[in-house]
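Design review, sub-item: ligand-bound model
Attendees: FS, YL, KQ
YL presented the inputs for the 2-carboxyarabinitol-1,5-diphosphate complex:
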Amino acid sequence: MSDVTALYYFEPRSDTTPKFAAQAIADEETTGTWTDLTTRTDYTKRLDGRVESVEPEGSGYLTKIAYPAEIFEPGNIPQYLSVVAGNLFGLGRLNSVRLLDIFLPEELVRFKGPKFGIEGVRKLIGTDKSRRPHVGTIIKPKVGLNPKDTAEVAYLAATGGVDFIKDDETLTDQAFCPLNDRVEAVMAGLDKAMAETGRTILYAANVSTRADKIVERAEKVIECGANAIMVDVITCGFSAVQALAEEPSIKVPVHVHRTMHAAMTRNKKHGIAMRPIARLVRMAGGDQLHTGTVSGKMGHDPAELLEDNNILKEKWYSMKPVFPVASGGLHPGKVNAELSRLGNDIILQAGGGIHGHPEGTKAGAMAMRQAVDAFMEGVTAEEYAKNHRELRLALEKWGK
Ligand code: CAP
Ligand code: MG
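KQ shared the predicted structure:
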């Protein structure tokens, strides 16, 4: 079995040579430590890490570290991370270090992976032929609405044309909006909307909770009617995503939110880039994953984002492709900027950009769909807005 290799950016401490710093990573994450060992045996040497390359990059260096595959317990994502993203971040010989990507042999990527993936979700929504981007919304305000009012907002977004509705990342099972009551109320409204529109609309209830309760919580919300589930992967863990995705009784798409990711992904000198996180979510079995926008409210690097989305979509052993989600500060005026860079295999999500529309949620959803339809027809949003009122009002309020 070929080695696992990991690519890092790092800046060595002033008294440390780049090669020595890279070697410190290889040692720490395999058989070494800060000093030589009297307990070293010849046969353990086969597990030594190796520095494959060190090259100058900006104000630091890129290094590729080879880790013997035998160190990795097949299927154990937490253990994979403890090696490639473990103690190394704290090593004093490094002023900073960022994990950029991980390359795993097929034997270590034998996961069930996404149940649905892009094609499965497209078939559910009915866009497997048109290939148009999906439009999603997040119920806003983020927290506070009671189940009845949540259901009303969801119904309006659905009849306005969204394909996907989700809870926000901080909404779970609070007293002001009990989870199962919310799911029953929302799904009653969506059943009505689906009958009226003839379209399938997914509602992903946020099942994020403690590891030993999350599958049970997901099974309960599905029993209450949810036709998708959502989980915050960084706060709940990759194992939580894997438990949900691999659970046979869970037969609905898993939407993966990444809240808290920016604590690791944002600093280009230190932390973990979104790319390895995207690979791990694909292995764990997420069907849809937030990866960012090129024009929204969160900090972004379009070059990194495009490659992150490719990692989710390209052929990767037997793992189904994962639907990238562009979300955060989007509104109808930004649809063209997003689609022209990210392509059509994308879910565009808008919270404020729908529920902040001058004529309310239904008009906001219509405006988002009109902006997508304009792009698919090769027409500018301004042109399309001439005979689409909801889009015109959105452009007047938010511009581009
Ligand atoms: C977007 C959002 C999402 C962010 C997450 C929010 O709302 O619901 O959580 O998109 O960022 O709470 O901000 P708006 P990312 O549409 O109102 O901005 O997708 O980059 O992880
Ligand atoms: Mg949110």
